[in-house]
């Protein structure tokens, strides 16, 4: 299963809304997770099964979608949200796949 | 506090072997599936291997299948990655990650250990 993330880079200002896309090349139901990676840090789980926030994740992060098209939305960007975001499918568990990532940087 | 600490990364020549270890603490290690994920310099995340809690379900990415072996010792709270026939393209930061349970996702990550394959 191939995951394609778009755009590759998203340039926004603090307070703006961010919309990130992840598209699978076949139906993966809702078996999609989202991770955030800050520079020099390990990834952090944000969302699992397309729309469920992981423990401790702020409500400004939300996920949606099913089948082949998925979206991660950050309702109002905080300074700490500027990072790289990856989607990951578990439809073929324990074989997993990550998308190529979307970098959210400061405009 | 749940913690994962990777070790064993090194500079190694192409064709040689290396064994990575991930030491787990702060949770019941034997209850969870575990993964290895790598990130090449400046690159994205690549899933490498996964193993179920009792080692009866294991899989590898195509890029390492037949060369790498994932294993675990639940009595020692440890995850391993035996890396054989290493290639320059295996150069990366290797993370171990814990599964959250059902539904699966990687909810705890180590800081990673660096493997460099070069002559």
Q: How many H/I helical runs of chain A?
A: 0
What's the Cα radius of gyration of chain A?
13 Å
Overall helicity of chain A: under 10%
Q: Could you give the distance between the termini of chain A? A: 33 Å
Name the largest protein-protein interface in this structure: A-B, 26 and 26 residues
Order of helices and strands of chain A: EEEEEEEEEEE
Which residues of chain B form runs of ≥5 with pLDDT under 50?
Answer: none
Question: Would you kindly provide a written description of the structure presented here, covering whatever features stand out?
Answer:
The complex is a heterodimer of chains A (about 110) and B (about 120). With about 110 residues, chain A is mainly beta. In chain A, about 0% of the residues lie in helices and about 50% in strands. With about 120 residues, chain B is mainly beta. Helices cover about 0% and strands about 50% of the residues of chain B. Chain B is built from no helices and eleven strands. In chain B, the strands form two sheets. In chain B, strands 2, 4, 5, 6, 9, 10 and 11 form a seven-stranded mixed β-sheet that branches. In chain B, strands 1-3-8-7 form a four-stranded antiparallel β-sheet, with no helix packed on it. The model of chain B has no long low-confidence stretch (mean pLDDT about 95). Classes of the chains: A mainly beta (about 110), B mainly beta (about 120). The interface between A and B is medium-sized, with 26 and 26 residues.
What keyword list fits this structure?
heterodimer; A: mainly beta; four-stranded antiparallel sheet; globular; B: 119 residues; 0% helix
């Amino acid at each position: 299963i191939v995951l394609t993330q778009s755009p590759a880079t998203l340039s926004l200002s603090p307070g703006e809304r961010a919309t990130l896309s992840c598209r699978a090349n076949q139906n993966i139901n809702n078996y999609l997770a989202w991770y955030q990676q800050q520079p020099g840090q390990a990834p952090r789980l944000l969302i699992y099964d397309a729309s469920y926030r992981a423990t401790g994740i702020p409500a400004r992060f939300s996920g949606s979608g099913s089948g082949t098209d998925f979206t991660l939305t950050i309702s109002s960007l905080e300074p700490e949200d500027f990072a790289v975001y990856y989607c990951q499918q578990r439809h073929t568990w324990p074989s997993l796949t990550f998308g190529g990532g979307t970098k959210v940087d400061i405009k | 506090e749940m913690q994962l600490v990777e070790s064993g990364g090194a500079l190694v020549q192409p064709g040689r072997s290396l064994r990575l270890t991930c030491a787990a603490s702060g949770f019941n290690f034997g209850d969870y599936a575990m993964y290895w994920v790598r990130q090449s310099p400046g690159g994205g995340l690549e899933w490498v291997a996964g193993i179920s809690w009792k080692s009866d379900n294991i899989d590898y990415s195509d890029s390492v299948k037949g060369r790498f072996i994932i294993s675990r010792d639940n009595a020692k709270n440890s995850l391993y990655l035996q890396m054989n026939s290493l290639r320059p393209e295996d150069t990366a930061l290797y993370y171990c990650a814990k599964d959250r349970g059902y539904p699966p996702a990687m909810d705890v990550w180590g800081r990673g250990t660096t493997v460099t394959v070069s002559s």
